[in-house]
Design the sequence.
């Protein structure tokens, strides 16, 4: 198995990244804060006023290190990647599959089933952990609903009907998500998913982690030679990494949502860690953002047994494993795409 | 795997200083400086071969010495640091 490569997050405003030998040097006010050899890095994520030298961007492109630029609050702005690599035959098969209705529906079914079952697992896990203090009946009903929807998704004939089921599931899931927050503070109330901008603290954390997840999934797809823009469940749209969003679906509940819940429930983030921006959106404070990034990186270093390949894998490598499995399926070596299911 | 690289370079002449700088740079490309001539490098076997080869080519075996310590995959656990200049854990969360 591949080594889990680290990600460098630069949140220091005014930082300048340069190439120093075969390493990235992070300079803040003419002082080198950190120096990291490129060979241990899989990606660099820059927040806000952070710039990078062309020489560094070139070296990152060559070393297959994805560099993403996000706004200070974690909204995706741009990413810099090297020349398209990988196998053109694989990409062609990806396009052919995305162009054919049965091909789209087939893969869309897999992604949505993965998401549904993982959503169900998140709800059930919460019931198991906190069931006593919860109004369990509606949550159990929602969990049963996911089982039913997963069966319907498996039989869905077109990608449009799969999207319909996905929308239904998202509504059900976010309808009860607020009950999974076990901190009794109005600051962490959650009623509905809001984005661009996120209107409350929970949405703010969700959006932030989804952006981080998208960076990782996208890098993994590019690393195995797939085109992150051509998706099956998500329709093509200029600039949208549709395939990355597709593959993200199965990871959202298990990786991002659960981390949001633990950060809040374990009081690693508190109401004081959020501020309200000019447009009414809720933002993380600088210090809290760092804490969330550290928690995210720590989570990625934990190991789990992948149910399909039956091997121990670092959580951070799961997107890579799924990208490989998808590539294998497209090449015809696997009959179906097995989504990552959390038990 | 974690490799520890240390060297002694004879710097009585200018060529020696150049060798010293070159070897330090090579080590920095693959790892980090933990003390003046001590470097920790987290490398895979192929990277290690490349680094070793470059270091040996850069030294003068008549005047300098190189020592390599193989700490293995779990190398980090065998290290204890006391005092100033605690190095960064390059495998831990990197948030600047």
Sequence:
């Amino acid at each position: 198995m591949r080594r889990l490569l680290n990600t460098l997050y630069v949140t220091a405003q005014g930082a300048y990244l340069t190439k120093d030998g075969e390493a990235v040097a992070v300079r803040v006010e003419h002082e080198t804060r950190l120096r990291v050899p490129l060979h241990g890095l899989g990606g660099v994520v820059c927040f806000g006023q952070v710039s990078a030298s062309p020489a560094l961007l070139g070296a990152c492109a060559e070393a297959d290190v994805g560099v993403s630029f996000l706004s200070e609050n974690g909204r995706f702005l741009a990413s810099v990647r090297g020349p398209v690599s990988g196998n053109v035959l694989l990409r062609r098969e990806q396009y052919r599959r995305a162009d054919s209705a049965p091909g789209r529906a087939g893969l869309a079914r897999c992604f949505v089933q993965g998401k549904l079952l993982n959503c169900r697992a998140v709800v059930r896990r919460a019931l198991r952990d906190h069931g006593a203090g919860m109004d369990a009946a509606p949550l159990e009903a929602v969990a049963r609903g996911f089982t039913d929807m997963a069966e319907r998704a498996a039989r869905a004939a077109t990608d449009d009907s799969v999207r319909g089921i996905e929308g239904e599931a998202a509504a059900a899931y976010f309808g009860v998500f607020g009950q999974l927050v076990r901190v009794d503070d109005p600051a962490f109330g959650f009623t509905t998913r809001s984005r661009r901008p996120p209107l409350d603290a929970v949405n703010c954390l969700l959006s932030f982690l989804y952006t981080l997840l998208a960076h990782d999934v996208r890098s993994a797809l590019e690393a195995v030679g797939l085109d992150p823009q051509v998706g099956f469940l998500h329709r093509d749209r200029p600039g949208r990494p549709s395939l990355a969003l597709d593959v993200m679906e199965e990871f959202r509940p298990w990786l991002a949502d659960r981390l949001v819940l633990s950060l809040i429930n374990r009081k690693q983030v508190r109401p004081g860690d959020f501020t309200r921006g000019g447009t009414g959106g809720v933002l993380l404070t600088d210090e809290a953002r760092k804490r969330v990034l550290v928690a995210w990186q720590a989570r990625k270093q934990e190991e789990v047994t992948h149910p399909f390949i039956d091997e121990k894998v670092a959580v951070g490598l799961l997107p890579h494993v799924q990208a490989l499995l998808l590539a294998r399926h497209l090449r015809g070596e696997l009959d179906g795409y097995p989504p990552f299911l959390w038990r | 795997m974690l490799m520890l690289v240390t060297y002694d370079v004879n710097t009585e002449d200018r060529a020696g200083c150049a060798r010293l700088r070159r070897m330090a740079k090579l080590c920095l490309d693959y790892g980090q400086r933990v003390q003046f001539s001590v470097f920790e490098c987290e490398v895979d076997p192929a990277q290690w071969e490349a680094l070793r080869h470059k270091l040996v080519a850069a030294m003068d075996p008549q005047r300098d010495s190189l020592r390599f310590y193989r700490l293995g995959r779990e190398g980090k656990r065998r290290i204890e640091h006391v005092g100033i200049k605690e190095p960064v854990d390059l495998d831990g969360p990197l948030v600047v």
